[in-house]
Write a structure and sequence with these properties.
alpha/beta, 374 residues, 6-stranded mixed β-sheet
Length: 374
């Protein structure tokens, strides 16, 4: 396991050196006023200043106010490690990131989620630890290590799979967690936040039927992931409602890449009866679909319609006032903020019942859809 936070241990020659380095880090960042210097300015012991900063009741109110005023004057803020030593917590949240190419975590959508979560951690005085899981590493051992080393106070579970084994493991380890998504087949209680993927894709497919489309294709994400299976079911629900049997030749699932959208669409457009509309699981896939349509000499929204799922990515906006793609929309960055807040609340109130948050995606009409060609 690799961590984003590490110490230059190759420079340390003894256990005393390790302890000294950690204590020095806890007292303050290098190059900034540390606890010892602040205590010297005030003429108080480091213990008294630390207790005043952390709100201990045995410190008088006048002393506490004096310490807080000095801390503000000298722009002093105790390091996360110092707060952790005072509170007995790591004040850090773990995110375990598989590096395998067959996992949705490699998708750049993850960056916006992490940005949103990081904003909430920073607001509440927590740090983030990203642990990279290589293909040959045991996922269970990574979580067990985080727990045994007390490296984190909780973890976020990403991209849940069907019958995801991480959920019972984290229950067994008694490590607080929140799942971004849901894991079908897991009966035990757990906190989660998810988009109503089934409803969103059913509604999007119904919209295409209302425009007269009957040959509708689905380009989905990796269907080992729970969200992708829910989207497929929503798509199939709408087909069945309209008396149309799902056609395997029009249903494809893979990593959500531009190349997947391009190559699959190019193949489908060569069929004797090509689709007149394509529903995709991400903006990135939709860009590949559009490239294949235009390369064929066709026009998006006139010859072939596209509906996508838009995570409202900060680096990939869906047009300006008029959206480029008709899309089901739900901000993954907002989801990151909400998941982080849920987890920090769970850490603060460990006996609280699991919380479930289901977000509804909005359907926005853009330039990529139109009536089915006659």
């Amino acid at each position: 396991m690799k961590s984003a936070n590490f110490w230059p241990l190759q420079q340390i020659r003894s256990s005393k050196s390790i302890l000294a380095l950690e204590i020095h880090s806890a007292l303050g960042d290098f190059g900034q006023m540390n606890l010892k210097e602040l205590s010297s300015q005030l003429g108080l012991s480091q213990t008294t200043v630390s207790r005043a900063l952390n709100g201990y009741p045995e410190v008088s109110e006048s002393t506490r106010q004096r310490v807080m005023a000095a801390a503000e004057q000298f722009n002093y803020a105790p390091s996360t490690r110092a707060k952790g030593l005072a509170t007995g917590k790591a004040l850090a949240i773990g995110h375990v990131i598989p590096t395998t190419k067959s996992h949705e975590m490699v998708n750049p959508i993850f960056a916006d989620f992490i940005a949103g979560a990081g904003e909430e951690y920073a607001r509440q005085g927590y740090e983030m630890i990203l642990s990279v899981l290589n293909d040959d590493e045991d996922e269970h051992r990574v979580y067990q290590s985080l727990k045994s080393r007390r490296a984190v106070d909780g973890v976020v579970v990403h991209a849940p799979r069907m019958d995801d084994p991480r959920i019972p493991l984290l229950h067994e380890l008694d490590l607080p967690f929140v799942v971004h998504g849901r894991a079908s087949g897991v009966a035990m209680p757990y906190s989660w936040l998810d988009v109503n993927n089934r409803s969103a894709f059913r509604r999007a497919t119904d919209f295409l039927f209302d425009l007269g489309h009957r040959r509708i294709a689905l380009l989905n994400g990796n269907e080992q992931m729970d969200f992708a299976m829910r989207r497929r079911r929503g798509f199939e629900d709408a087909l069945n409602d309209h008396g149309i049997a799902p056609d395997p030749a029009l249903m494809h699932a893979d990593e959500m890449t531009e190349d997947f959208g391009y190559t699959t669409t190019r193949t489908m457009l060569e069929m004797p009866a090509p689709p007149t509309a394509i529903l995709t699981s991400s903006m990135i896939i939709a860009l590949g679909v559009r490239r294949a349509i235009e390369e064929k000499g066709l026009r998006m929204g006139r010859d072939v319609s596209i509906i996508t799922h838009d995570d409202r990515l900060s680096y990939l906006p869906n047009g300006g006032d008029v959206p480029i793609f008709t899309a089901t929309r739900s901000s993954v960055r907002d989801a990151g903020r909400q998941v982080a807040a849920m987890l920090l609340q769970k850490i603060a109130q460990p006996d609280k019942s699991p919380v479930h948050t289901l977000l509804e995606a909005e359907l926005t009409v853009g330039q990529s859809t139109g009536p089915a060609p006659t």
